Amino acid sequence: MTSESATLELCLSVPAEYLQVRAPTPEWFRWAIAQRPESRWVTVDSCPIHYLLWAEDKPLRGRGVLFVHGGGAHAYWWAFIAPYFMRHYRVAAIDLSGMGDSGRRSSYGSEIRAAEMRAVIADAGLGQNPFVVGHSFGGFMTMKFASEFGDTLGGAVIVDSPIRSPEEEVQHPLAPPNWGNKKIYPSFEAGLARFRLMPPQPCDNDFLVEYIGRRSLMQVEGHWTWKFDGAAIGARRFGEPFREYLQDVRCRAALLFGEKSALVSRQTARYMSQLMGPRAPIVEVPEAQHHVMLDQPLAFVAAVRMLLENWIRNE
To answer: How far apart are CA 106 and CA 241, in angstroms?
Structure first.
């Protein structure tokens, strides 16, 4: 593994003025994004893996937190969340291979993603027994990571990643999203106008959707397209035994889900609780949908900080 640092924000091909949020923003958001992370890479199995590191403050306990994004997303989904952990933790957010500013692979799977997460934890200096917080697709990767390397973790927080009972799957089947037909746009503005959350949902915090949307496009041969490889998040992942990974988690774990989530119902949460065991906290965030950190960002911060602090106190 090799490591290198970069000082420029996001991708070099995106002009800085394209990244400026136009919607009105609250003070808490302006403070958070003013805490600029370091942009870094580590090579895993010949693929450059990009991540963001917030390490300006010395961590009080020498502990770290790794945030893992959802399908088709990127590390900047956490850029307004991660700074609220800086005072006590060394914090990193990964771009999984095939997404964000990381490289592409000929094939993907949770095993190589677990290796990427492990490499970032080491390269970022997140210390012994760090915590991992994974949303949606990233929650599935966190299940895999914690089933293999959980004895190296302080705990894992799975955010709105559905593991449904066989009965619920029959009653309410979920169709895998189609990520393969990636659009090409003549301009950055045309692409940004087409940015949508997946699964589709409204979000009252327009400034957050705009912020991540502006960081979701890249320039290719004079045109603009999304910063993910459709093969990286295709239907193949639905064939992996994530139910078994969740049962085999080798560290403390918690499920955090949105009250109005389209993917994790209370029935789903109860089933996942059975798989995780009676000591695993199950936290429902009021008024949040699937994208919990967009719908209720400060409530999300408070819930995750509570979980981590409780785990530390009970070590």
So the answer is: 22
Q: What is the DSSP letter of 99?
A: B
> What are 213-229's pLDDT values in tens digits?
999 999 988 899 999 99
Q: Pairing state of beta strands 64-68 and 131-135?
A: parallel
Q: What is the pLDDT of residues 161-179, one digit of tens each?
A: 999 999 988 887 776 666 6
Q: Which residue has the tokens 């900080």?
A: 305
Residue 133's beta-bridge partner residues?
Answer: 67, 157
Which CATH entry fits the domain spanning 3-313: 3.30.70.20, 3.90.1170.50, 3.30.390.30, 3.40.50.1820?
3.40.50.1820
User: Pick from 315, 243, 309, 249: which is nearest to 65 by CA?
Assistant: 309
* Whole-prediction pTM: 0.93
Q: Which of 198, 199, 159, 163 is nearest to 292 (CA)?
A: 159
**How many angstroms separate the first and last alpha carbons of the chain?**
32
**DSSP 3-state helix, strand, coil percentages of the chain (rounded to 5)?**
35, 20, 45
